[in-house]
Amino acid sequence: MVRKRGGESERQRVPAPFIRRRIASGRGAMEQPNVTHDGDAALTPTFWFALVLTGVATGLLGAFLMWILFLVERAAFSYHTGSYSAAVARTSDVHRVITLAAAGVLGAATWFLIRRYLKNEKAEIDDALWNGDAQLSVRRSFLTSMISEVVIGMGASVGREAAPKLMGGVSGSLLARWMGLTPAQRRLLVACGGGAGLAAVYNVPLGGALFTAEVLMGSFALPTVLPALACSVIATMVAWVYLPSTATYVDIPSYHFSGSLMVWSLPAGVVIGLLSIFYVRLIGWVSAHRASGASIFWKMPLAFLVIGVVGIWYPQLFGNGKDMAHDAFLGLGGAGLLFALFALKPFVTALTLGSGAAGGVFTPFLGTGAVLGGFLGVVWTHFWPGTPIGAFALIGAAAMIGAVMQAPLAGLVLVLELTHSGFSLAVPMVAAVVIATLLVRQVDGYSIYSARLPRRDALPGFGSGES
Question: In this predicted structure, what is the pLDDT of residue 463?
Answer without folding.
Answer: 38
